[in-house]
User: Fold this.
Amino acid sequence: MSKYQEKLSHVLAAAVVGLIFGVGLVISGMTQPGKVIGFLDLTGDWNPALAFVMGGALLISTFTYPLIRRLEHPLLDQQWHVPTSRLITPRLVLGSVLFGAGWGLAGYCPGPAITSLATFTAKPAIFVLAMLAGMFAYHAFEKFIGPRFPGSK
Amino acid sequence: MNVVWDLNEVMMAAIGGVIIGVAVSLMLLWNGRVTGISGIIGHSLKLTRGDWYWRVAFTLGLFLGGVVMLALSGPERFIDTTDADMGTTIIAGLLVGFGTLMGSGCTSGHGVCGLSRFSPRSLVATLSFMASGFVLVAVVRAWFGGN
Assistant:
């Protein structure tokens, strides 16, 4: 695979996708942390509505994915950039468990938090800053501790 | 367990989900990529990579989607009814940032894109973060009661 060459068309396409995604998130209810925690609240007043967000998205993408992958290459690029790893590692499970805990604590996952920055209120802004700090911390972890962690590539 | 929901909410969730499904399909069709939001943001923090601009553009698009919806439908769809204080919010953000990069994805990358291509990795990740979220909320409820 040759080195990825970023083009203006990729940048514009990504912006359009982000915009549509953000609109979908707000309509779906994912930008309301109380609803998210209500969805995770099995032992309290459980609100299963948000399961239909993933359901609605999968209804479309499960159909379109194999259709689009029949093309030789994507419309704006000469090669695919879809993940290929099939390894189930300690990192995959531990990372997902940590993520789930943070999601349940504040009711934000990464996308809705970014979209909610539009309100210019404190909570999403603080959450996003902390999330970026957590991402920097992970890059530092990979650099200094990563090679000694179980399941390293 | 006490199930509380209404049809209108379910309809909006499904419509929003379909729109998200269209968005990830366009990302694949145009740029040949999965739309994993934590990865798109997290890997933009490594400035040495040669693919910085599309990541920032996508993130700006997500923000603009919020601006558009705020203008069209007002602040109700962004209302936060939780009582998470600043300390909780910071811990949550740190966990989400660190965890999504360590687990190579979040709700969008694993939950939508990964599951739609039947990736076993994404199925394990999705079950892990959902289970973790369910357990965390149940523990918080058991220890602190209320919401």
Summary: Residues 8-148 of chain A form one domain. The mean pLDDT of chain A is 94. Residues 122-144 of chain A form the longest helix (23 residues). Helices of chain A lie at 8-28, 33-40, 51-69, 90-106, 110-116, 122-144.
